[in-house]
Amino acid sequence: MLQLKRPIVFIDLETTGVSLSSDRIVEIAMIKIMPDSTRQVKRKLINPGIPIPKDSSEIHGITDEMVKDAPTFKQSGNEIKMFIDNCDMGGYNSNRFDIPILMEEFLRAGMDVDLSTRKMIDVQHIFYTMEPRTLTAAYKFFCNKELVDAHSAEADVDATIDVLMAQLKRYENLGNSVDSILNVIGEDKIVDYARRFSFDDKGNEVFNFGKHKGRQVTAVLKAEPQYYDWMMRGDFPLHTKQKLTEILNRTLLRNN
Question: pTM score, two decimals?
């Protein structure tokens, strides 16, 4: 049994594609587990405001016709925000995909949502640490079940929770709390959700891509101010640009 200090919401998204900066949510499924083990479920189709590519529809089965009368994310954002309020977060590959995409949608909708104090359990991270596999294989391996309706958001998030519960039974060293799990698998220190930046061993933000990879962001911005403008004009996620601006403003304050 998972022991919780506060609720945890497991999420799964179906999207128009895999780009954190340009693709949109077409379905969101969330299951909230309360400290008393009761569950609350919320599932919504979302009108992405852009066409859903045929290749994506073939994966998750959601078409333009199915979402034409669905609310946009901006219309649904407050309901989603309230559902995850004061909750830790979980999912399968959620730290690298679902949560970054969700944050992009909040930012596009002009909503101030801060997840920096939330604990985040990525069940894929546990699985890849212990037994590298896909979700379908994880479900078979840990639960001895076949995953029916894979890429249906609710089926995937439900299977993710089943896998986590089986992992807790199989790996006793994981314990049964959010903190004990993260103590074993590690907790990422995130600058931006797309991970274009990371922290060095002294806690300074450094670039995690391109020609400046490994260099401190503040040093690059000081030596090449135009690099900030290039990134702000580029195809980078809004959250990455937001963090870059925060670093720049902090640098300017120090120099004044």
Answer: 0.80
